[in-house]
Amino acid sequence: MRTPRPHSIFSMLDAARRARRSFGPAVGISLVSLVLAACGGGGGGGGSSGFFPIVPNNPPADGGGPPDNPPPPTVVPVVACADLAGKSLPASLISLPTGGATVVSATAVAAGDAGNPNGDYCKVRGTIQPVDPASQSINFAVNLPEKWNQKTIHFGGGGFDGVLIDGTEVIRFGPAGKPAPLALGYATYGDDSGHQSSSITDGRFAANDEQLANYGGQSLKKTRDVAQALVFARYAMKPKHAYFLGTSTGGRDALSYIQRWPLDYDGVIANEPALNYTGTRLSNVAVGRALYNNGGAGWMNVAKTLLVQKAAMQACDKLDGAVDNIVSNVESCRLLNTQILASLRCPGGADAGNTCLSDAQLATVRTIESPLDFTTYALANGVKRAGGYNILEGALVAGPYTTRDLGTRPVPANPATSADANMYVTGDQWVKYFVTRIAGFDSLTFDPLDPGSYAARVTEMSNLTDATNPNLAPFFANGGRLIMLHGLADEVISPNSTIDYYKQLIATVGQAAVDQSVRFYTVPGMGHGTGSFIPNWDSLAALQGWVEGGLAPATGVAVDAVAGSYGRTRPLCQFPSWPKYRGAGSLDAAVNYSCVTEVGDPLACPNLPASVTTYKGGDSFGEELRVQIDPATMAYTVTVDASLQRAAGTVRNGSLVAQGSCSYTSGESGAVFSFAPGGVLLGGVNAPSGGGFAPLVAFQNTFENTASPAVFNPVANIFNTVGVQQGTAGAAAYAGAVRLRNAGTFQYCRSAAGSAGSFMVYDANCTETEKGYITYNTTRGAFDLRTTAPTGGAATTGGTLTGSMVIGLVNGAAVPLHLVRDSAATAGLRIFGLQQSLAAGAADGSYAMASAKGESREATVAGSDFNLGGATASLSYDTPVPGVVQSDAGRPGNFIFNSGVLGFVSTTGTNAALELGVRH
User: Fold this and answer.
1) Which of 246, 675, 846, 878 is 20 to 30 Å from 116 by CA-CA measure?
2) CB-based burial of residue 338 (10 Å sphere; 0-12 exposed, 13-18 middle, 19+ buried)?
3) pLDDT tens digits for 102-144?
4) 146 near 188, Cβ under 8 Å?
């Protein structure tokens, strides 16, 4: 029979809808059945052929109301699920050329069915036939809930597609435990983009023009038309709101759709979108050429790749104020590229094993890191750049946080396989099937910057597959809202291409329009569904509130889904801002971070002196030292003023090299010099024996007492003390209480001699005691320290010279440093902190640390959380005495804190006896 005109179908279905409102479902069902029967359908058999109508682009919904209206009531179907089976839609009612659509199956799924968490719904599966007989059909899936919320969601695909997106999935990067949209009442749909494959990295489908066009975006429109018609047929009602959700290729799908058909969707979420699709594939090939040309000289195994990642993390993790295995201050980190690469170079540039990189391998890193700039041709929409990957800013392309790497061999197969670099595999498929259509083509001979005779074809592919049109004005004019999210550590799709697109969007439609209609979030540490931070947040609720309630999303809170750090939170910052630690509170709580836009030179140090300056202090062997720093040349000189291990006047000198965060490498056996606020210097000097370096701490300003009689009132107090005692048996931790009196006398008290557990509340009558006094030595600029008899009253004459004391002044506060020199075989260092209550949060911050074992590393204190060199522990304050903080079994020990200086003593012999730290 003759197919009725579309408007006639709409008239009868509108009548069904009105009848349903007035007389109940039974009348509505009968009228819809008549419509289908008039087209050869209906009757409940489900096996006969029939037609269902199509909905025009984004039709107005009845009963809309203002944005603050409550959610619309759920709608029940007017057509039984089984009655949809076998129905068809003619090609004339699909916007793009097809051979028509057919419902292959329509199955009622009950809420109680095994493995179904999505409630009662109608599971529709069907095909959209091609025009080209050689092309495969589009398989589509539509899910129609029994209680419909009058909204639809279109899900995008992934990779090269070929796998049916069935619409039953949960929200990508959504809150843990939130039901899938289908379970919430949304009608959902998706497709396989018009070809079928068991692998999303199989590009052979692109050898067929129609399949390629479908993958480029046409299947999305075709599927949408069919799905909306099915929704209309089942409910006799148009959706009030339609949304599109996509990730990766699906994110590209989402953007491509609203660029081509801006009136179909009210809101779109594009996660980590492969929008510069052609640029991405060209970049894949460029990386492959760097890895594999010249006999694989540039290829890096996993060990070398991890070496690069570790160097970047060590240099940049702390730039956001928190040492948390996340690089948040990406653009400041980018300024350290040269230093990081220089630190990785093998001597002479030749490959010397897994501890360094050859010049060819460094070139590979630069290729991965750098953008591709096209100078001889342009991609679609005038794009002449493909963003690089942030491998030197925290992106992880190997290791436990990603399933991808640079392959297992220096010579790839043709075609490339999973044994080859993940980046190259998809680029190789793209060259073979999208561009050259030569299955055996050697993609390593294809130059992305100069494709030669294939340049026009590359541009043609870009026009077909890319989603880089920045003119979203029609979408915005229709009230459309867009949320984009991209991980700054994405190792598959460059976040820098998405940033480029966002900037072009602003340049095209204006900042005001973008502010009104777009939210773009960048997530530090997030890879391509991988990484050290994977955000969970309710993007669908945010989009829905924006579209339906007029509530624009602001700074959200993302919950980390990574197993080892599950549950920590960070603010979800809008580009170009990033989350900076405030300096106090738990590192795992978003409330302790601010979204900032600052990008500073990480090599600049505000704590450097303005001119040549001398610092006074000492090291862990009890040596009294002067350290001179020339900020113009970064030359340093360490002079020994007093020591039992080497002659006074011994000099060490060298140059400091900036590493960021006011830290500098030196020539002292791996010691790192760190300049802290208030004129404090932490560093090291070659140890007098045993190799390695001895940690030192020194002060730009010190307490000097040349008056007669000497008065110590400004610095006298009761302190806790921690330190190290270096002897023939090795290094042992020291802890106790000490009082420094107005007359310059002192008394130590310990609860258990020789034990790290010897903290105690100061008691003048303590039995485990050490007494003495200090006098100022104007020649050395320090106090000579003499010990007297442990019994009897305080004495200020006689005694034995057993060391010296430097009393640093940090913003006016006294930080005494006792340099112990009992004998050449018994020497050490003790640092003081006030014996008064220390509140949680007072010592919060990131610290540069130096240990008595000759190690330089980082530490973070955040409330009750402690991280020292990667070992994490919980803290108890004022334990066992006021002013002392106890660390649990994760890193057993105690620390004291005084004006930004931290002293940590370990309670286990497997760790350094003492570690000194300064707060950045």
Assistant:
1) 246
2) exposed
3) 999 999 999 999 999 999 999 999 999 999 999 999 999 999 9
4) no
pLDDT in tens, 801-829: 999 999 999 999 999 999 999 987 789 99
Quick one: tokens of 336? 């350290």
The rounded distance, in Å, linking the Cα atoms of 650 and 659 is 28
**Positions in the chain whose pLDDT score sits under 50:** 1-49, 53-69, 754, 756
Query: What CA–CA distance (Å, rounded) separates 811 from 808?
Result: 10
Chain-centroid distance of CA 89 in Å reads 46
Q: Is 486 a catalytic residue?
A: no
Query: What end-to-end distance do the CA atoms of the chain give, in Å?
Result: 82
H-only helix segments in 466-580: 473-477, 495-509, 511-517, 539-549
Residue 338 corresponds to which amino acid? T
| 574-603 burial code (b ≥16 CB/10 A, e <16) | bbbbbbbbeeebbbbebebbebbeeeeebb
Active site includes 528? yes
CA dihedral 112, 117, 121, 123 (to 10 degrees): -110
Query: Which residues have C-beta within 8 Å of that of residue 183, sequence separation ≥ 6?
Result: 117, 118, 119
| Distance of alpha carbon 644 from alpha carbon 822, whole angstroms | 9
* 862 CB-contact burial (10 Å; exposed 0-12 / middle 13-18 / buried 19+): buried
Amino acid letter, 626 = R
- d(CA 770, CA 803) in angstroms, rounded, equals 13
**Distance separating alpha carbons of residues 829 and 848, to the nearest angstrom:** 18
Catalytic member of 166, 253, 428, 490: 490
Helix, strand and coil content of the chain, in percent to the nearest 5, comes to 25, 30, 45
How large is the C-alpha radius of gyration of the chain? 35
Distance (Å, whole) CA 282 – CA 275: 13
Orientation angle between helical segments 6-23 and 25-38, nearest 10 degrees? 160
248 as an active site residue: the answer is yes
- The partner residues of 654 in beta bridges, in order of sequence, read 636
Instruction: Find the largest Cα–Cα distance for the chain.
Output: 122
* Cα separations in angstroms, 242 against 58, 142, 258, 685, 917: 8, 14, 12, 67, 56
Residue 919 sits at the vertex; the CA angle it makes with 918 and 920, to the nearest 5 degrees, is 115
Burial of 735 (0-12, 13-18, 19+ CB in 10 A): buried
What's the token pair of residue 889?
Answer: 């079994």
Residue 706 has, within 13 A of its CA and on its CB side, a CA count of 8
Residue 868 neighbours by CB distance under 10 Å: 28
Q: Tell me which residue has tokens 């130059």.
A: 447
Q: Which of 195, 528, 818, 920 is catalytic?
A: 528
Element (H, E) at 919: strand 914-919
What is the CB-side half-sphere exposure of residue 314 using CA atoms within 13 A? 20
